[in-house]
Amino acid sequence: MNLIARSWIVVALLSLLALSPAHAGMTPQEVEWFKDAKAWAEKGEAEGQSNLGICYYKGEGVAKDFVQAAAWFRKAADQGFAGAQILLGNCYFDGKGVPKDQALAVSWYRKAADQGDAGAQYSLGGCYANGIGLAKDFVQAVKWWRQASERGYVLADYNLGGCYANGEGVEKNQIEAYAYWNQGTVEYSRRKLAALEKQMTPEQIAAGKKRTKELKRELEDKIYENARQKEFAAKIAEKPDRK
């Protein structure tokens, strides 16, 4: 068969798939991602180690291997990389690649949450709300969900609305619940809002709409300030040591 007559795209695809049986059925892009992540990870770069862990976890460019995924997440997590800390926490939470240990999962979520990772803050709040890996504590759940909300994590808004509606971790407040659900973007929030409106007077609904606008401004200010602080911290970390 005359390969020269084929397009260069087909030739590239065949050559990539022939590299290893592990690559069968994978796209050339996935294989390249794996190669790049591996090269980066082997240089000790935390982000590269985390990316390599993701490749193993999802089976992108390499055969799926949760043990390898967790091992690479740990390397990055030990360097303080927040993204890897929450991923390693997920591994312990589900028992993928490591023995299931939800208390240890919580400890890794907390490390990332303390660095301002909104996803970790949301997960940590969920652990407190459900008593997973630690004692149930809705006050702590609200604290962490609020921090996630102030970083733009919209699922936290839905949960905060529920806390205010039910008086869990905060004083029961229909107006505040209305505001969180009304400015939220997830479908669950809309459903809860519709049910809540049936319990409210026209005056309360008007107050809820007013509070929605106020809360929206408050959150926008917080999100902007947190983003600035994160950007500033990243610039400081990039500066070489001066001796």
How would you describe what is shown here?
Helices cover 71% and strands 0% of the residues. With 243 residues, the protein is an all-alpha fold. The protein has 2 domains: 27-115, Tetratricopeptide repeat domain (Serine Threonine Protein Phosphatase 5, Tetratricopeptide repeat); 138-224, no CATH class. Helix 9 runs antiparallel to helix 10. The longest helix has 37 residues, at 202-238. Mean pLDDT is 88; it is low at 1-21.
Major sheet details: none
Number of helices, where a helix is a run of at least 4 consecutive DSSP H or I residues: 12
Q: Approximately how much helix is present in the residues?
A: over 70%
- The CATH homologous superfamily of the largest domain is named Tetratricopeptide repeat domain
What's the overall geometry?
elongated
**Strand residue content:** under 5%
The stretches of 5 or more residues where confidence is low (pLDDT under 50) are 1-21
The CATH class of the largest domain is identified as Mainly Alpha
What class would the helix/strand composition place it in? mainly alpha
CATH topology of the largest domain: Serine Threonine Protein Phosphatase 5, Tetratricopeptide repeat
Which features would summarize this protein structure in a list?
243 residues, 2 domains, 12 helices, 71% helix, elongated, disordered N terminus
